[in-house]
Each structure stands twice: as C-alpha cells, then as structure tokens.
C-alpha cells in the first residue's frame, strides 16, 4: 500500500515540475499531453495561488509551495499508515 502512495505522490510531483517547465515555453494548448498536465495540476495549484500575495514580482511560487505541502502530506500519510 505504501509504495502505491509513494508512486502517486511522485507522479504528482513530476506533473507539477512538467507544468513549470511548460510555462517557460509556448506549448500548444490543444496538445493532449499539455491539456492533461494542466487539467491534472490546476486543482492542486489553484488553492495556493489564491493564498499567495500578488506582488510586483511576476514569479508564481505556487508550484514550490504545492511541492512542499505534497511532501508533508506524503510523509504524514505514510506515518499514519505505518502506525496501524
């Protein structure tokens, strides 16, 4: 059970990193792979974008915050499962 959870979190991490890399180029928004990455990561990143303050720096730190929170959630979930 724990390897499945770890793999799922690793896939989410990779998808978020892929989205960051895609933001550096102009991907075709109609490409099925690009659409999958955006549709999969947007529900994770949107809440962090809402709580992040809008400043003068045009850098989106929500992926970094999401990766940190996902790592904490992974560790907590694994610790809870190992406790049983």
TrEMBL record:
- Pfam families of this UniProt entry? CCB3_YggT
One cellular component term (GO) for this entry is: membrane
Superkingdom is Bacteria
- Return the similarity comment: Belongs to the YggT family.
Q: What PANTHER family does the entry give? A: PROTEIN COFACTOR ASSEMBLY OF COMPLEX C SUBUNIT B CCB3, CHLOROPLASTIC-RELATED, YLMG HOMOLOG PROTEIN 2, CHLOROPLASTIC
Q: What is this protein called?
A: YggT family protein
Q: Which organism is it from?
A: Calderihabitans maritimus
